[in-house]
Structure formats: C-alpha cells, structure tokens
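Encode chain A's predicted structure.
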Amino acid sequence: MSEASVETLFDEFALAYRRGERPDVGEYLARAAEGTERDDLADVIDRFLQAVPARAPSEEEVVLVQARLERQAPLLALRIRRKLGRRAVVDALVAALGLDPAKGEKVDDYYHRLENGLLDPEPVDARVWSTVSDLLKANVRELAGVGPEPLAAATTFLRESTAVQTRMMAAARAPKPAAPAEPDEIDKLFTGSA
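Encoded structure for chain A:
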C-alpha cells in the first residue's frame, strides 16, 4: 500500500469522524510514512480530537465497558441489561428461524456458548445475528467479537467444565448411539458446518 500524505490522511480521518464514524487512529498512522510524517499526523489528529466536542458513547461501547468492569462477556451483559432471560432469546431464535421447538435445548446450548464467548462468532448465520440484534436492540455482532475478561472466561470455563463433567458421567451410563449424528440445521446456523 502506498503511503499517503499527512494532509490526505488527516482529511480522510476528519471526514469520517464528522460523518459519525469512529475512525481507527492506529489504522491511519499505519498508512503514513514512518518517522516525521507519522509523528506529524499523530499530532494533527490529537489536536483535532481535543478541539471537537466529545461524542456520546454508543450503547455498544457502554455495554463493552460495563462488561469489562463486571468481568462478563458483552453479549451476556447486554442481555442482562435488557432484563431478558436466555430462554427468551432461545424462544425468539426458534420462532424466527422456523426451527423445531423440540430442539430448543440444542439452540440454548449454542446460544449459551455464543453469548459467553465460547463459540467462534464468524461462521454464525446472519439470520441468527439479525434475530438477536432485533430482540436486544443493539449491534450484537459487534459485541460478539469481543470476549470476556480472562477471569470471566475462567469462571465460565469452570462452569462449563462442571457441566461437561456431569454430561460425561451421564453419557457414560447411557447406551451408546449407533453412529455420530450428521450436522443438522441448528449446527449449520451456529457453526457453518455442512
């Protein structure tokens, strides 16, 4: 990528900021030539940001800060902020996606993992994001890419480990299935597996 001038980069940054976007300073600095030009751009952007009125944070930013302070995963913090039980989200997903209500527990398991940062958000189907965004009235896709703080992740891991151990013990006592099940529609919605 060719290096742009300080003036060009600053103009792009200022226009994006005035349009209501949240331009990434680091990205603009990386595009500047190393040395004096990069330092000059940093100074100009710094003075600009000091001079313009501060913006009110978006709700997603507020939720991210709250989640960090409470050492929670952001999606979980948002759902709690909305005073919704996880079952309400699961029921909405089952209804909106036309899924078999008998498979609600499987949807619950996937959503629990997604909400707690234990499931890769990348392959999750856009219809899942749309349904959850509509229900929670926020850009949940943006929040899902941010995992919980390490302590929250460890706590969630311990809870998951205990649940997994319980399921493993129950599975050891249960009769063995004949063959592994093929991925169904729910697996495809949450993992992209075909």
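The chain has two domains: 6-51, 59-191.
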